[in-house]
Write a structure and sequence with these properties.
Elements lengths: L6 E3 L2 E3 L4 E2 L3 E2 L4 E3 L2 E4 L3 E4 L7 H12 L6 E3 L5 H4 L2 H7 L4 E4 L1 H10 L7 E4 L5 E3 L4 E6 L9 E5 L4 E3 L18 H13 L3 H11 L6 E3 L10 H12 L5 E8 L5 H15 L5 E5 L5 H10 E7 L12 H4 L3 H4 L4 H6 L15 E3 L10 E6 H6 L8 H14 L10 E3 L9 H4 L1 H5 L9 E2 L6 E2 L5 H15 L12 H9 L3 E7 H14 L9 E4 L11 E3 L18 H11 L2 H8 L8 E2 L5 E2 L2 H7 L2 H7 L9 E3 L14 H6 L3 H10 L4 H5 L1 E3 L8 H4 L7 H22 L3 H13 L3 H20 L3
Parallel strand pairs: 7-8, 8-9, 9-10, 14-15, 16-17, 16-18, 19-29, 21-24, 26-30
Antiparallel strand pairs: 1-6, 2-5, 3-4, 6-7, 11-12, 12-13, 13-14, 20-24, 20-25, 22-23, 27-28
Helix pairs in contact: 5-9, 6-7, 17-28, 18-19, 28-29, 28-30
């Protein structure tokens, strides 16, 4: 295929692949597009996946017809496009590899011992003259990886668009197929969540005179470009493309399916065009995602109390003393919905008697025990203290015992877990985990941690550490599984995260691999921006009024179900749930304290033993705190001596050095700040039905797009201004206003019980 006399197509079709990226069905395969420009100098526009490397090599050599390859332009480092780079360099050792700064950071992560003799680093607006053809480079970060750029050739007015305007389907099998169908599915599943960056790229493209678009997947586009550009503008601005109703359901016993099908038929009978219905348990999810964005109306069919399927518990609670005493009257009232009824019982974080907490089941700055030991267990109070220690340790000890390189600091940013990056400013200012805001306890006013002076200092610090090579360059592309794998290897010296997010995966893996002997366990340190009083850990439990255990109206015996829950909350059965059988799972000392022997402790960690002996009913209501005897914790994790005795030796050694026995003591404790706490129990249930909810959604998108760029930017001040401009355009005042209204309501409700 020739794009022109000088621009040749050298890509390949893959008709053997069944799942693109191992998850998207591609019955017609996929194309890996690559192009070569033949001028005074030759330039190859990307390579292809290793699956097609042999055919691509033949296409390339045939197109060159004995000529040398002078440049290869790397627009996107994903392996389906950069996978043949090493082979290209073997063929042409003197070739100049062209990419941006982020490209070259990533190359060495994808290729071991690659020998690049010549390289050219380009930035926004840079040009490369090939003779009669001139390439202009346009940065397109997060469309859909951070290193992405596109290239405009001005003499023939060709835009090489990377993954933009791509589609599923091998060219040989889809020559006459509708472009939009598979391009739509490709866009929303591969690029869809990066609408804001796509919009930015479209604005840049609007300034160019484009006659041809050459994507990395799918056909070359040259006719009716306005059609393709308009679709991309619609898709990336999250506007519906077509009028229609998309009905998505999941059905346990077929009743919800029946209701959804009847509803669809009613709509059709009323003359509604484009009624699309799908079973989310059985469909191709990629198709469902595509349709969810395509149509202007969507119906989700699922069980909810709004549909009248949940039993109101008000008339039952008083009959069951253990359930009744599980909450105070004030707390029960917080669970009442707009209709005045209570429909669920929250399961977690309820404190009985005196709080006994040894773990910090929340967010913190974590650091490895070996780092603390190397520095003779210093006091770490400030953000600067924390990063200085990691820097110094890594400089002195760049590898683990087996020679594996350390990763000084990594950041988890995938999907909803991007809290590991974005919400630290509230903690650094000494505030607790309210989730979406800070609350001044004196004025009772909501404050925005995203725009605070501390936020600027924190992200500037991350930017400085990134430029020094301390922050893991894979932070913004790694998946959760990849992140956990890094922690499990013992390589990561420090990170911010919620304890529950890594303790039961990476923590157990470190112990199983014996890496605790090298000091690879993680310990929380009480870091704030300048050493001020911190509220990393708050006592008193957290009432999450947003969800809990409910009973549906299909239940044949509501009272029997509630009696079961009531029994589970009795002291005898609660001890059995979490401690086990006396003499078999735990012992009782002469002082009346529960404890485990070393053997019992080891058994309690075994998967098979837990499956055959333990039945915690972990998603049923449960207590933390103290048993009725006033001595023992309701769970082993709250029994200070049992907790300490069960720790790995590297953590024990650190705790002894600091004069503590628990994670909580490392951080210090505070009382819950007020009756409004936590605000995340409100903001977590935000929808786009309100102005504030819409603002919160847009803010999340902007953070996902902009904060990685802020951290990686060569010019922090400029990147921060760009971020703040985008952030303020989201109308954050609407979000903050709704938070303030909820806070005022909670304070008013609490005043009734003073």
């Amino acid at each position: 295929m020739n794009i022109s006399d000088k621009i040749k197509y050298i890509g390949v079709d893959d008709t053997t692949i069944d799942l693109f990226e191992s998850q998207y069905a591609v019955p017609d395969g996929v194309s890996y597009n690559s192009y070569v420009i033949l001028d005074d100098k030759t330039a190859i526009m990307d390579t292809v996946d290793k699956r097609g490397m042999k055919d691509w090599e033949n296409n390339l050599l045939n197109a060159l017809d004995g000529r040398n390859a002078d440049y290869v332009i790397i627009q996107h480092m994903e392996p389906d496009h950069a996978g043949s780079l090493a082979r290209l360099i073997e063929l042409f050792p003197e070739i100049t590899v062209v990419g941006n700064a982020k490209t070259f950071v990533m190359i060495n992560q994808f290729f071991e011992n690659i020998n690049i003799k010549n390289s050219l680093t380009v930035k926004e607006g840079d040009t490369l003259n090939l003779g009669s053809h001139t390439l202009t480079f346009v940065m397109a970060p997060m469309v859909h990886w951070p290193e992405v750029m596109v290239t405009y050739e001005s003499s023939e007015k060709v835009l090489f668009s990377a993954d933009g305007f791509g589609k599923f389907g091998a060219l040989s099998l889809t020559e006459n197929a509708d472009w939009a169908c598979e391009a739509r599915r490709y866009y929303f599943n591969i690029v869809g969540k990066y609408g804001a960056p796509v919009q930015t790229l479209l604005k840049k493209a609007s300034a160019l005179d484009i006659k041809t678009i050459c994507p990395l997947h799918g056909p070359v586009l040259s006719d009716n470009l306005g059609y393709y550009l308009d679709l991309y503008n619609t898709w990336s601005s999250y506007q519906p493309e077509s009028k229609g109703v998309f009905i998505a359901y999941a059905s346990i016993h077929g009743n919800t399916a029946y209701a959804a099908e009847q509803f669809a038929e009613m709509l059709r009978n009323k003359g509604v065009d484009n009624v699309v219905i799908t079973d989310l348990a059985r469909c191709d999810i990629a198709e469902a995602v595509k349709d969810a964005f395509r149509y202007d109306r969507m119906v989700l069919a699922a069980a909810s109390y709004d549909a009248g399927v949940l039993v109101a518990l008000d008339d039952y609670i008083d009959k069951y003393p253990n359930i009744k005493n599980y909450f105070t009257e004030q707390e029960w009232d917080q669970l009442r919905q707009d209709d005045g009824h209570i429909y669920w019982i929250p399961q977690f974080s309820n404190i009985k008697g005196e709080e006994k907490t040894c773990t910090h089941n929340d967010e913190a700055f974590w650091i490895q025990a070996r780092v603390l030991e190397w520095a003779n267990y210093p006091e770490i109070k400030t953000m600067d203290d924390y990063f200085k220690l990691i820097e110094d340790y890594n400089a002195a000890n760049p590898t683990m015992e087996d020679g594996t390189e350390n990763i000084p600091y990594t950041i988890l940013c995938e999907d909803w877990r991007y809290f590991c990056l974005e919400n630290a400013p509230q903690f650094l200012d000494g505030y607790p985990n309210d989730g979406s805001c800070m609350v001044d306890p004196d004025t009772l006013k909501v404050m925005d941690y995203n725009t605070s002076d501390t936020a600027v200092k924190y992200f500037k610090k991350l930017n400085e550490e990134y430029q020094k090579g301390i922050v893991d360059p894979e932070s913004f592309t790694q998946t959760y599984d990849e992140y956990i794998a890094k922690l499990s290897s013992g390589r990561v010296l420090g990170m911010i995260d919620q304890w529950w997010d890594f303790a039961y995966s990476a923590g157990d893996a470190i112990k199983s691999a014996g890496l605790d002997a090298q000091g690879c366990d993680y310990i929380p340190v009480p870091v704030t921006i300048d050493g001020r009083k911190n509220q990393w850990h708050n006592s008193g439990g957290v009432l999450n009024s947003g969800d809990g255990l409910a009973i549906t109206k299909d239940c044949d015996d509501v009272e029997a179900a509630l009696q079961f829950v009531d029994d589970l909350l009795s002291e005898e059965i609660h001890n059995l749930r979490f401690w086990g059988v006396e003499g078999e799972d735990y012992q009782v000392g002469d002082d009346g304290l529960f404890y485990r022997t070393k053997e019992q402790r080891a058994k309690a960690a075994e998967t098979d033993y837990k499956a055959s002996h333990a039945c915690s009913y972990s998603y049923f209501p449960q207590y933390d705190g103290t048993c009725d005897d006033g001595l023992n914790a309701t769970k082993p994790s709250g029994q200070a001596k049992e907790f300490f005795d069960g720790l790995n030796d590297d953590v024990k050694k650190a705790f002894k050095a600091y004069g503590v026995e628990t994670y909580v003591e490392m951080l210090g404790t505070n009382e819950a700040p007020g009756p409004w706490y936590p605000m995340w129990s409100f903001s977590n249930n935000f929808t786009t039905d309100t102005e504030g909810g819409m603002a919160w959604t847009k803010i999340g998108e902007v953070k996902h797009e902009q904060l990685p760029q802020v951290v990686m930017a060569k010019d922090f001040d400029s990147a921060w201004k760009t971020y703040m401009d985008a952030y303020n355009a989201c109308n954050p005042d609407a979000f903050l206003s709704e938070l303030q209204a909820e806070l005022d309501k909670r304070m008013k409700d609490a005043a009734k019980y003073e």
